[in-house]
């Protein structure tokens, strides 16, 4: 029996289509770790409550290590998703109990443990103890082979795209904005000021910013001028916003994948991105890297005049879950 573990909203969104395909085919139970306080999962089989301390990341990891018994009857494998504190903590604890680890969305790299922080460290470390790596593209497969991580590697695409196969994109007048990453917290005042300037200079576009609940983001809300901000959107409304917008400004990893699948250009406000295969200026590519706030104006002007995407999404075809289930049927 596989114990499928998650603690954040992106993890939940990426395992959901897989659980639907596993149900009745591959035995599983779920473990919810309350890393995201706004995600309350009532249907999970097991839960870990986060015992708060001075450092949130320490609290998540110590709570997992000290609060869950991985010797529960029938658990033969543990599946973790991505590069969160939840996935890292669960993987290490499973390793301590000699339970084989399945890593969904494995092998992504920037090779800079400060960007993204702390995710790059978590995913590199998890790869070293993983038995079954489920990677999005051939690039992640190559990274794992070069690192001699061990375990079996399967290229399956990204499961988040399985949620989008019936979504029809179009190009409206909205510029969708999201920003929340830890490494950008000190830069948010500069980014918000630049965004407000762009909104003022482009009144024909609607700048829309669903704000992340992190207080380090919300404390700068007053700097957003000529921009419509809101509370976080439910997933279906967020997908609709991605599908209907003209282009996107974000520091999110998952949105880069979803935008590529839905043919939307994305300005990625980060020093580095592990989703580099979609980077480029031609219409073939869906994303451009903006390394600092002072680059935003020129990149915005380019994307505004070249916002349509013609290339295929490199992150999958929307059928990753089906491929994974066929793999699991053979190896579990």
Features:
single chain, 332 residues, alpha/beta, Rossmann fold, six-stranded parallel beta sheet, 11 helices, 13 strands, globular
Short recap of the structure:
The protein is 35% helix and 17% strand.
Could you outline the blueprint of secondary structure elements for this entry?
Elements: E1 2-6, H1 9-22, E2 28-33, E3 46-48, H2 56-67, E4 77-81, H3 85-96, E5 101-104, H4 119-128, E6 132-135, H5 138-147, E7 152-155, E8 174-178, H6 188-201, E9 206-210, H7 215-218, E10 228-230, H8 235-244, E11 247-250, H9 254-261, E12 266-269, E13 287-290, H10 296-305, H11 320-331
Parallel strand pairs: 1-2, 1-4, 2-3, 4-5, 5-6, 6-7, 8-9, 8-11, 9-10, 11-12, 12-13
Helix pairs in contact: 1-11, 2-3, 3-4
Task: Walk me through what this model shows.
The chain is an alpha/beta fold. It folds into 2 domains: 173 residues, Glycogen Phosphorylase B (Rossmann fold, 3-Layer(aba) Sandwich), CATH 3.40.50.2000; 142 residues, Rossmann fold, CATH 3.40.50. 35% of the residues lie in helices and 17% in strands. It contains 11 helices and 13 strands. The chain has a 7-stranded parallel sheet with strand order 3-2-1-4-5-6-7, sandwiched between helices. Strands 10-9-8-11-12-13 form a 6-stranded parallel sheet, sandwiched between helices. Strand 1, helix 1 and strand 2 form a beta-alpha-beta unit. Helix 1 packs across helix 11, helix 2 packs parallel to helix 3 and helix 3 runs parallel beside helix 4.
